[in-house]
Amino acid sequence: MTASALIVVDMLNHYEHDDADLLISDVERILPSLERMIREAKTRRIETIFANDNHGDWSAGRQELVERALAGAAPHLIEPIIPPADVPFVAKRRHSIFHETLLAYLLREHDVTQIILAGQVTEQCILYSALDAYLRHFEVVVARDCVAHIHEDLAEAALKMMERNMHARVTATPEEILQLL
């Protein structure tokens, strides 16, 4: 049986940046599916890991990033998906969840061979994380309903690249992912 992990990417966001309005709109669209995915992962005992940009502050951990996000422009997008204290949390600085983080080590320690990517931004951090996962020989799964974009055309191209170049399984819904597991 393939050991899987759900990785929730960059959802602790203060939404006070260029293109925030476009991103907020799409996060509102995916939030119900993302919440469902997180709940189902817990129910099925699928390892869940939150990976989040620390926005250049290496002293910031889970609690500080949650507080900053809640104080930002869209706390209603943060409150439903605050990472629980008992769930692994990885701080990152660049686009990829793997770049100079301990994530690959954590996944290998749990015998994970397949990652399910969820969060934001499809055409940026999700794409680069999928590429880095592929390069590290992880199987990649992405549910369209669980990833948010800024630019729809770039997100569609990114999903197509993940499928074609990284052999990712791109599904429409969290339920389709869960059927694969």
List strands and helices in order, with pairings.
Blueprint: E1 4-9, H1 20-43, E2 47-53, H2 62-70, H3 75-78, E3 89-92, H4 103-109, E4 114-120, H5 122-135, E5 139-148, H6 152-166, E6 169-171, H7 174-180
Helix pairs in contact: 5-6
Please tell me about this protein's structure.
With 181 residues, this protein is an alpha/beta fold. It has a single domain, classed as Isochorismatase-like (Rossmann fold, 3-Layer(aba) Sandwich), CATH 3.40.50. It contains seven helices and six strands; from the N terminus they run βαβααβαβαβαβα. It has helices spanning 20-43, 62-70, 75-78, 103-109, 122-135, 152-166, 174-180, and strands spanning 4-9, 47-53, 89-92, 114-120, 139-148, 169-171. It has a six-stranded parallel beta sheet with strand order 3-2-1-4-5-6, with helices on both faces. The longest helix has 24 residues, at 20-43. The chain starts with a strand and ends with a helix.
